[in-house]
Amino acid sequence: MEIFGIPAQALYGQLALGLVNGAFYALLSLGLAIIFGLLNLINFAHGAQYMLGAYVAWMLLSYLGIGFWGALVVAPLVVAVLGMALERGLLRYLRDVDQIYGLLLTFGVALILEGLVAQSYGWSGMPYANPLPGSVDLGFMRMPMYRLVAIAISLVVCLAVWIAIERTKLGAYLRAASEDADMVQAFGVNIPRLIMLTYGFGVGLAGLAGVVAAPVYQVSPAMGSNLIIVVFAVVVIGGMGSIAGSVIAGFGLGLIEGLTKVFYPAASTTVIFFIMILILIFRPSGLFGSTR
Amino acid sequence: MTSSTSLSASRGERRITRRRRLVELGLFAAIVLALMLASQMMNPFVVMKIMCFAMFALALNLLMGFTGIVSFGHAMFFGGGAYMGGYAIKAFGWPLEAGILLAAAVAALLGLGTGVLAVRRHGIYTAMVTLAFAQMLLFLAIQAPFTGGEDGLQSIPRGYFLGLLDTRSEFQLFLTTLILFVAVFLIVFRTVHSPFGQTLKAIRENEARAISLGYHTNRYKLAAFVLSAALSGAAGAMKAVVFELASLTDVSWHTSGEVVLMNLVGGIGTMLGPIAGAAIIIGIQEFLSGIEDWILVINGVIFVVVVIAFRRGVVGEAIGSLARREGR
């Protein structure tokens, strides 16, 4: 069977790959959006923290024999705690200066993390054993079991985070503090602690994405920095204000990237940037963004 | 009465500005002398590298320091210029100055395209947009047939500069780099102190007020962006000739970050800061050349320390302490 002259199997295969990429775009841009909402910070270290998540998972497996499912819980916690220490130790001193300094500081942190990991484990990638070998028959195609699970994990986490922010009391605090932190503080909410926990949570999402990514891609020091710049483009396209926007844009752009790989492979690495250009021309605040 | 006092005040201010300009030029002359001395005392290629990156940092500072636009993708102009200039010299046999001019022109065009979109957003958004554009150019450079992919564009020949200087000689290559470096400094210096530069500063300080005074601020910002890109392209082409190489590193986000770091260390929005920053960062890298793997970590640590502890940079702090002493 062929669709537009392309074998259906190839098309489905690339679409599935696109969805897997989209799952990571969504998790990462979701974390960025949550951090940006409260801290007004573009967390450049997000890619490095994603990479850190993958390395912690790898270390847990290699040194302690803790497998994928254990790492899925432990590694994001480790990354979150390190993130909270970073917030406490450095980021909080930048709350009253221009936003750009936060970007510069986290850029520096990204360099440090990438350099340290490369120093310890080398630049070349290391494989992480697939915890769920085998594939499932979806009726129209066969899909590797693990990739299906990766997409499912991302979808479930994104949905849970969205519900937590829109429907719980803590989420209400978070949304209120994003609007006007001083006012919420005046009502007796401990804003510095909320900021610390929020940063830890956003960074933990990056760590989680890193663990999920470990069996799909090679675990390497540069895995995060290459991805995070694409995620920045995703964020510009989706619009900074919206939680749902970052998730939808993440999955959508992953799919579009997959489609491009089928129809015009040479453009597959740049298609997201081209879409960003179009968005900047016709809708500068992004698809779901409010004008800021 | 009030008008006369304000007039005399502005006259006094003008005297101070004129004095500051003379001090800046005098210090720059001292820097040029120091560079010439250094080229005799140490590896001249390190000095040339410092000058190439100082040009690049000066170009970025025009945007970052004097207009208030933070670009995190300036490697696309530097690297684009390195590839363009290098290719024209190598494949077309163009003379050096023509290669540099072509590099500046191509970088200016790139800057026009990027700038039109980047100046529509503000602050950190501009940083993200420029970063994304640079990454797109990196991917294009990886795929394009003439860049040599991972190997880069190698063995770019050194020819005559203006038909006078034979850059195959190490000393004349140094002189060529120095001439371009002085030219770039004077262009930035003249621009910053021109009425156009004053408008840029007004936009940096308060864009809304500049708009209400009738300035089309986006046009000014775009002009600054294009000029900055063109100078970065020229710096890149010079670097390609000095090292006979244009590579993917020149276009990578690491290079974009490094030139931001040079400005940050030296002092954003000062005339001499970018030069000091370039000398410090390149100096550290050369000093540690045995342990290259640590450069990432060290750059990162410098970023963190400067952002937390002295955001005005070396030159900015020096100006600050001088001003305090004069105030007392």
Automatic annotation (TrEMBL), chain A:
Compartments reported by the entry: Cell membrane
Pfam families linked: BPD_transp_2 (PF02653)
Membrane spanning residue stretches: 22-42, 54-80, 100-124, 145-165, 194-217, 229-256, 262-282
Assigned keywords, A-Z: Amino-acid transport, Cell membrane, Membrane, Transmembrane, Transmembrane helix, Transport
GO cellular component: plasma membrane
GO molecular function: transmembrane transporter activity
Keyword Zinc-finger: no
Membrane topology note: Multi-pass membrane protein
One GO BP annotation of this record: amino acid transport
Membership in a protein family: Belongs to the binding-protein-dependent transport system permease family. LivHM subfamily.
Protein name: Amino acid/amide ABC transporter membrane protein 1, HAAT family
Native source organism of the sequence: Paracoccus solventivorans
Record lineage: Bacteria, Pseudomonadati, Pseudomonadota, Alphaproteobacteria, Rhodobacterales
From TrEMBL, chain B:
Cell compartment(s), UniProt: Cell membrane
Membrane-spanning parts: 21-39, 45-63, 75-94, 100-119, 126-146, 171-192, 222-241, 261-282, 294-314
CDD domains listed in its UniProt record: TM_PBP1_LivM_like
Key word DNA damage present: no
GO MF assignments: branched-chain amino acid transmembrane transporter activity
Keyword set includes Membrane: yes
Keywords: Cell membrane, Membrane, Transmembrane, Transmembrane helix
Signal sequence extent: none
One GO CC term, this protein: plasma membrane
Topology term for the membrane: Multi-pass membrane protein
InterPro entries found in the cross-reference section: ABC_transp_permease (IPR001851), LivM-like (IPR043428)
Entry protein name: Amino acid/amide ABC transporter membrane protein 2, HAAT family
Originating organism: Paracoccus solventivorans
